[in-house]
Fold each of these.
Amino acid sequence: IMDLEPQKIIKLDESVVNRIAAGEIVQAPVNCVKELVENCIDAKAKHIQIILKMGGLKSIQILDNGCGILKENLPILCERFTTSKLKNYEDLQQIGTYGFRGEALSSISMISRLTLQTKTRDEILAYKVKYDNGNMIGNPMPCAGNQGTSITIEDLFYNVPIRQKTLKSSFDEFAKIFDCIAKYAVHNYKISFTLKKHGENNSIKTQISESPIDIVRVIYGNEVANSLLKVQAGDENLKFKMEGCISNANYSGKKGQFLLFINHRLVESKNLKKAIFDDLYRTVLPNTVQPFIYMSIEIDPRNVDVNVSPTKHEVSFLNEDLIVENIKKEVEAVLLKTNETRKMYTQQ
Ligand code: ADP
Ligand code: MG
């Protein structure tokens, strides 16, 4: 017989609420790395270095040469909802930074041991500081250091036993991080990225470059880079522009890649992917071949909702069907043009 006794409602402890919220934002090391890298880019860093132990499960260290953090900000840095990027709700309409909700560092500090060292241009010294559960431990310690910020995350999920069990191997976690950094490096080709496993050679090393294709060459290889064709689309009424590159009809890669950035955010779009991969390339490429696609789309920010959960990557935007159709048409034109030339050559 079911117990129908109503239960008393209580207000959860702040520490419980915080840890539950943190678990939603950081599901795997890659979520941490992405948040931290976005912070470096927001801080205008030109160089970002990432060093991992055990695919980030043991430690993640991120160094940047960005603007650094003011000493006076350090005490509340890892509290929930503390940010330098947003003041009013209305600012969300034209937010130019990746961050705005002030939740990343706080979440990470709830489920790991976080150490940070930072130096601004105008300070003579750097400061080193540790956090636990959102709180600064002791006072910032002055030390020598270069301009920028270095954050070390150790023992991620040490207090979330279930996450430790469900996470994949450090091999898989590293692969996810590699994929994420590769994509950010291509899109942010004016920033140099280094990714490596502690004590090993660089897995990714890019230089400040002239175009995304230079980075594709470094990370994904010559075969991909040599096959790339530039594409562009845009429409004033639909208020969007797209620039990117697509592998040509001769490309024979087996592993499809879709690097999609909308307003500089790494996102996914089922509709666009279907239009390009299934509806378009399937008619041009053999079944076993998957294209490599990089697209950077800029849409009037008023037409895209950025206020979704940080781990939700699927986007939707106004006039989606029309924009997708428009992009598909341009990609098709570029692809068929080169396909025709190829046919002509091979028939001669
Ligand atoms: P958000 O990015 O949404 O503001 P975060 O928790 O990611 O929230 O970061 C909180 C604040 O810490 C940022 O607003 C920024 O002022 C500062 N910060 C974090 N990382 C860096 C960094 N690498 N360089 C400079 N400032 C940083
Ligand atoms: Mg952030």
Amino acid sequence: MSNQKENKKSPDASNGMEKIVSLCKRRGFIFPGSEIYGGLANSWDYGPLGVELKNNIKQEWWKRFVHQRTDIVGLDTALVMNTKVWEASGHVATFRDPLTECRKCHSRFRADNLGFVRADNIIWIFPINGEKCPNCGVKINPENFTPPVEFNLMLKTFLGPVDPVKMLSGNLAYQILGNQITKEEFQNIEEKVSQVTHYFRPETAQGMFVDFKNVLETTRKRLPFGIAQIGKAFRNEITPGNFIFRTREFEQMEIEYFIKESDWEKYFDHWLGEMRNWLKDLGVKKWHEEEIPDGERAHYSKRTIDIEYDFPFGKKELYGLAYRTDFDLKNHSEKSGEDLRYTNPESGEKFLPHVIEPTWGVDRSVLVALLEAYSEEEAPTAEEGESEARVVLRFPKWLAPVKVAVLPLSKKENLSNKAKEIYQNLAKDFVCEYDETQSIGKRYRRQDEIGTPFCVTVDFDSLEDNAVTIRDRDTMEQERIAISELNGYLKNKLK
Ligand code: ATP
């Protein structure tokens, strides 16, 4: 959990985010969730371009860390697991954030974001530097704010035909009507409620620990080796917000890399290097690596580095890298009774492997990719000496949701037939878009705005010389290429 102040924004910052949010809505990257019913706060849907962008991130990650390595295998585990998993992992007891409420405006906040500090790991002390309510501006003191209460972040659900909420309210009504329930009846209700109460996973990691033995036995991997997973995670965040930065439903890409204890520093450095390479390839020019000090790390971690990024709303966590020791395998061994030790094939020695865990948030990767790619500039128009503003998403080419746009110069049938033929041929190799509406200048701008690296213009000469004009998004230079060489040319350029 980070302890940064997410409620403060500068006007410039919100402006930067507003542009991204509005572009995402306008062009079909990301829509507000459930919009036709008035929305659902902080829920977002990925539109036609957003899903391509997000898939590119996930596929590149999977290719790089699972397919191109012999020491990592993939997994896809259930979203709802046996509750004992979360008891063993420590999430039921410790996955909590401190919640405080402003008594004046009734806004709720994470206390650590407002300057509350925890003393002796037990009680929360009110801030002493004159901090104010980010919503209504009253001073934060015991008169205006409630003392922080620890709030478990796991999202609950109930499996099976018993609905505990109805059961409890039914019983309440029964008592209001003057009836008494016995202690046994109450315990019976409690028992039923706990039987059906389950949690959506708050991280993908535990699935990889719980299936460790299955993976080991079926793949016969030797240390060091890793298990990778991409999937949804759910957290009942107190203060979701900042677009897709903090939501209650999000996606993670995680690796649990199993090692001998003595090797942990070597592999911690290895994964830090891999995370740096990933950031560069995503187009991130600058980030911060924050060493998390003793006392602020998660309960399982002996060393953590947070990769932070200067978002328009402040410096915040983008990814994390943690040395989880043998905490998880040890706890799952003890609590499940299964022997999760690894046997050294040479010496026969049995031991619990230690774990390095690099974690990437998918949605935060999407947000960073959009922020890094967004640019506004003046570009020349077709008119001599004229220029106009152009918005360009300068995605690295592998990331662009659409790789090639096919644009016939006119809607005339002979030209559009030719262009459609070219489109069909290109679509076998690339994600393409076909667009024949409005002026060619406007169509170029539309493609720039969604980050399409290449536009292929089919003109009347194409009918004669079997060649097309290719326009480069970044240089805006145009080149004439034979249609027969088009796929090969673009493959080379998009490498
Ligand atoms: P934060 O301090 O921002 O709450 P965290 O330290 O709790 O994050 P981790 O538990 O390390 O996050 O989760 C791993 C990654 O999952 C984060 O680095 C981030 O990219 C992503 N992530 C975590 N919580 C959310 C969320 N609520 N919405 C979107 N992405 C999230």
